[in-house]
Design goal:
heterodimer, B: OB fold (Dihydrolipoamide Acetyltransferase, E2P), cell membrane (chain A), membrane (chain A), MetI-like (chain A)
């Protein structure tokens, strides 16, 4: 007799819903990518294939500055977040479970749960006070803000890696005369490296993409790529925005592929 | 003859939890392991043998009692400051380092000069016959090869004592037998004190100079393989090490009256009262004038010997192991009534647990 187990894939309309979902997900992205190669000035009318808008975006001084600013912020935030997340992950996994552990997890992952607009307003008010008091209006505010909301994204893959690590290895190192620091440096850290790299990449992508917090925290003339694009949309919409978005998409896909390769389980 | 002591535990106890719910993983065990001997801690899982090993390695601290290494108190010294190395059950090879780097690890941590480390690594690779594999990563090795690397890595720093935590349990039978001989060879060659933990009695008997049998956190008996096998102190030890037949009876005037009503002369036995006798299956003979009557229920052919399952007059069952004759046929019929006798001196009188 055939196995008549319940399967969601045999429900009526399953295929239709699945196809509709994929269409909704990918048609807008594909359209955006196609129109980034549009030769005409319109985002809606096709005027033939051209790399014109890529050239225009590439030569646009504002785009250049915003790109550099975005990269500086994302790299700095990713570095700071992955260091903090590594410390947090070591602190929460390398010890017997303790009272209030869940509370610590919740506190570390707070940026994932609090509405971003709330964090943005809070940071705006907090940093405004500091700006008045110190007179400093540089990029550091944005870097700190980005690092803060990137911590949980870096924390998750690092913690997963630590929890999957065989504790006997650290014991073996101690047994072979390694001091606790040597054990960390020679065994724990090298084995943790792929998790840290994955966390840093995820943080980089999250920071690169941020609009809300950046929009609230940035000082005048501190547009990042996303806030610059938002500003552009308020004026004339040209395929230049499509070109920048497509470039960002390619970068993100590359990084997430690397993230996937680093975090997938071996053997 | 006085012998130097390598490791000593003095009333070492390890409890998990506190108060009335505390689990006594190790219950005030005192043991003295001699320099250069192959000592095996044998017992079922949960008997405390691994806990004792961890106390010696320094991964755990005893709740009370002391651990001495060459007479020095090391109870509160961290593992990295003890001249003791461990071969872990899971091998615990560093996956990011090559075989050679794994073996060099301990020497590097001790800050030895590079030339010495290189020589020692070569020597160790030769000792475990893994010269060809020096540049491989552990994931590219078979279980038996990983085992050899783990052994070489633990031996490289020339520890005072080598601890082995069931290192052969993950290997298949043939490889396990090979490694038993290999371990014994390495121990003899290096002269290092081996403390070997296992639940496999055959492993313990074939390799050890002395065996400590443990149960429920207590050390029941310490002795050479022959002492443990031939003179177990109680029923648990007799039952755990090899197969044994147990018979209850009343001891009086140098003879035991069995539950069947038959009497078994034991001229050397002193005392009187209820006793348990232990007789190894291979120590039972079929003898026309034997003191015990038994009905042959079943024979099982094992190649080298044949197991005879026998029923006594009171219904209790015992097993006799007879060496198979060249024809393979013992000539015994199932259902036949036989007379049997234990070999002279083979009957043990046991204490009750």
């Amino acid at each position: 007799m055939r196995d008549r187990k319940f399967s969601i894939t045999r429900m009526p309309g399953f295929a239709t819903v699945a196809i509709a979902a994929f269409v909704l997900l990918y048609v807008p992205i594909v359209t955006m990518v196609i129109y980034s190669f549009n030769a005409s000035d319109s985002v809606a009318l096709w005027g033939g294939f051209s790399l014109r808008w890529y050239a225009i975006a590439w030569e646009n001084e504002f785009v250049q500055q915003a790109t550099i600013r975005s990269l500086v912020i994302a790299v700095s935030a990713a570095l700071i977040a992955s260091v903090l997340a590594t410390l947090a992950a070591l602190g929460t996994t390398r010890r017997p479970s303790f009272k209030g552990q869940t509370l610590i997890y919740v506190m570390i992952n707070q940026p994932l749960m609090v509405p971003e607009i709330v964090t943005a307003v809070a940071l705006l008010i907090f940093f405004a006070g500091i700006k008045v008091a110190t007179g400093y209006t540089g990029l550091l505010y944005l870097i700190i803000a980005h690092a803060a909301f990137c911590v949980p994204f870096a924390y998750l893959p690092i913690r997963a890696r630590l929890e999957g690590m065989d504790l006997t290895l650290e014991r073996a190192a101690a047994d072979l005369y390694a001091t606790p620091f040597q054990t960390f440096r020679r065994v724990t850290l090298p084995l943790l490296a792929p998790g840290i790299a994955a966390g840093a990449m995820l943080s980089f992508v999250i920071s690169l993409d941020d609009v809300i917090i950046t929009e609230f925290v940035k000082s005048a003339g501190q547009d990042t790529l996303p806030t610059y694009m938002l500003g552009q949309l308020r004026r004339a919409v040209t395929p230049e925005v499509n070109a920048i978005s497509t470039a960002l998409l390619v970068l993100t896909v590359l990084l997430l592929t690397a993230f996937f390769l680093l975090t997938r389980k071996r053997d | 003859m006085t012998q130097e002591t390598a490791v000593e535990a003095i009333a070492a106890a390890r409890h998990y939890g506190t108060g009335s719910t505390a689990v006594k993983a190790l219950d005030e065990v005192s043991i003295s392991i001699r320099k250069g001997e192959f000592f095996t801690l044998l017992g079922p899982s949960g008997c405390g043998k691994t806990t004792l090993l961890r106390l010696i390695a320094g991964f755990e601290t005893p709740t009370s009692g002391q651990i001495l290494l060459s007479g020095k108190d090391i109870t509160h010294i961290p593992p990295n400051e003890r001249r003791v190395n461990t071969v872990f059950q899971s091998y615990a090879l560093f996956p990011h380092l090559t075989v050679a780097r794994n073996i060099a690890f301990g020497l590097e941590m001790l800050g030895r000069p590079n030339a010495e480390i290189d020589n020692r690594v070569k020597e160790m690779l030769a000792l475990v016959q893994m010269e060809q594999m020096a540049e491989r990563k552990p994931a590219m090795l078979s279980g038996g090869q990983q085992q050899r690397v783990a052994l070489a890595r633990a031996l490289a720093p020339a520890p005072e004592v080598l601890l082995l935590d069931e290192p052969l349990s993950a290997l298949d039978l043939k490889l396990r037998k090979e490694m038993q001989l290999e371990l014994k060879r390495l121990q003899t060659k290096t002269g290092i004190t081996f403390v070997f933990v296992t639940h496999d009695q055959e492993e313990a008997l074939t390799m050890s100079d002395r065996i400590g049998v443990m149960k429920s956190g207590k050390l029941l008996q310490v002795g050479g393989p022959r002492d443990i096998y031939n003179a177990p102190v109680n029923r648990f030890v007799a039952d755990f090490i090899g197969e044994t037949n147990f018979l209850k009876g009343q001891l009086a005037n140098g003879q035991v009256t069995l539950a069947t009503g038959e009497t078994l002369p034991l001229p050397d036995a002193t005392g009187s009262g209820e006793v348990t006798l232990a007789i190894r299956p291979e120590q039972i003979r079929i003898a026309p004038d034997g003191p015990i009557t038994a009905k042959l229920k079943q024979t099982v052919y094992f190649g080298t010997d044949t197991h005879c399952h026998l029923a006594l007059a009171d219904g209790s069952e015992i097993v006799a192991r007879l060496q198979s004759p060249p024809s393979g046929e013992t000539g015994l019929q199932e259902g036949e009534t036989l007379r049997i006798a234990p070999v002279q001196g083979a009957v043990q009188i046991l204490q009750e647990d």
